[in-house]
Amino acid sequence: MTNTQLPEKKLLTGIPASPGIIIGKAHLVDRSRVKILYQYLINEDQINREVERFKKALCITESQLLQIKNRMPERMKDHSFILDSHIMIIHDSMLKDATVEKIRKEKINSEWALKKSFEEIKLLFDEVDDYYIRSRLTDVENVTERILRNLSGNNDTSLSQINGRVIIVAHDLSPADTTELNITRVMGFITDAGGRTSHTAIMAQALEIPAVVGLEQATKQIREGDLLIVDGNSGQVIFSPDEDDIIAYQEKQLRHEQYKSFIARTSHLPAVTLDGQRVYVMANIEFLEEVAAAKDYGADGIGLYRTEFLYLRSKGIPSEDDLFEDYREVAEIIAPMPVTIRTFDLGGDKFMAGLKTAREMNPALGLRAIRFCLKETKIFKSQLRAILRASTLGNVRLMFPMISGVQEVLDAKAILHEVMAEMEKEGIPFDHQIKTGIMIEVPSAVAMAEALAEQVDFFSVGTNDLIQYSLAIDRANELVAGMYQPFHPAILRMIRQVVSAAKGAGIEVSLCGEMAGDPLCTAALLALGINQLSMNARVIPLIKKIARTISSEDARDDLEKVMTLKTATEVRKHLLRTMSELLPELGEEGILDLSGGAR
Amino acid sequence: MEVIKNLTVSNKLGIHARAAARIVELVKKHRSTLILAKDGKEADGSNILSILTLACPKGTEIKARAAGEDCEELIVKLFELFDSKFGEVS
Q: What number is the ipTM of this complex?
């Protein structure tokens, strides 16, 4: 059956660690775990020699790290502390003294003793609540691995020896390994292990080489010399690509470069339509760390701060002070521009550490978001207090998710007022006029929009859930995922209804789903009367650019035509044609792909 | 000789890798020993992992205890380090 076997094209998806696109040959680096031999030592003489051997390995490790540090290129000097801290770990008593003691007392060889010391340190780190500190265990692991390699005498696979332009494929790379990469030769790297906040990812960004981490299977599936396409924007790695892939990615590569220079030129200018209407283009963020990037991309504020992360990352429920510190940071960094903090949307499918929730058959329709908050008022109140405390330190707005009707707003507001009264009594300052709004993402809220508008200061349309609930489509179910249609005429009508209710009551309305960042939708959304859009920060420069080419009057005329169309396919086709006329240089693919897969 | 001082972690990132490394550097330059204590847990100031696993985010109150001939200078320098937010640029 099989005669000629062409290498089969394959796709791996990992975590994008450093942006950019590269096409090149794979070079596998064996940085897998060193195999450990376990040995008992028989006499005093052997023990003394073993301690000497261990100390010598430490010396070699230190001089290697020092050498790497000294050879670091100038622009990376900012990060040299990572290597300093690795050197300190070598001499740390928990590692060094504890290992020597084990060699002597337990009469075991260095590798075994070192491994045991590492396990003890690991236990200590595991107890730490703070995610970032806990993840620093990786640094200890990197150092331990290097010592183990030196103990085995196997230190000849130095990364600085690599010849030819290659893409490094490794199980894991330590920050030290990353620094050793000769970047005139190494185009980028991909690893099985690693996460977004690892020091290795930071190093790759500083070196400005594309990297994808957390691929799990890369070293198992990719062979030396395989042709690879690495997309550091989306986290995708294609190996043995066909000609079409290569052409497509070469174009993407070019567009990524163009996009980068375009961002640098235009992102900080405000977005104003041809007829002088200001469009506020804001960012959706999930972590405090994303605020700086949002500002770099020219965000006019944070339109949606999803607050789930702090609840998911720590072992227990975060304290009010922890939350306050986080919100304060965001508010201070983005001020005087606004940040809309959405109270947590947990329960349902999202597991909340430290709190037992019942297993649900249909989590999307389950006990989550505001429903959960109205039941677990203690957790809810603590978050409200934290948000209110931060409200005096910046331009903070408060938003409730998943509102399905007026009663929920009344209940949530009653709790908010309770909290305010408590704080008043305690003499804690907060913004008494804090703008309070709701997400419009449940179809019943659209139907009740007029009544809801009387209760709040603003609406934010969450199109992702609104589409899912309105069209009864579970996006995670691949049998129906294709029927998830943002351009469905029903959705446009619902948005129009929400805007009209908001305008009638004189309150603000914004839109924060994926539609906000979809270049095809910008004109239609503006015509529908939405002038605040919140999106993935990376598409902000593009959406601003599009907004600058739009005339409100033309957009309104065009919307009239759009509203006569009956199917999602027709709507999409129409919008695509309009956009291509508006920005011909982008072309059909360009509009969708210019942002480098940022959607 | 011994000096004790209460310090507050005021930098954004708390005592993470970089800050811990700077404390260890400082202690290594002195002849005195340094113990950092928080909620009854203690960390050896010359020991980076010990400091890290004490887990001190922003706002943590720490009791610093230096003992030895140059302990006063060590505490002054340590205070300056905390005060300068470990040289963190925000």
A: 0.84
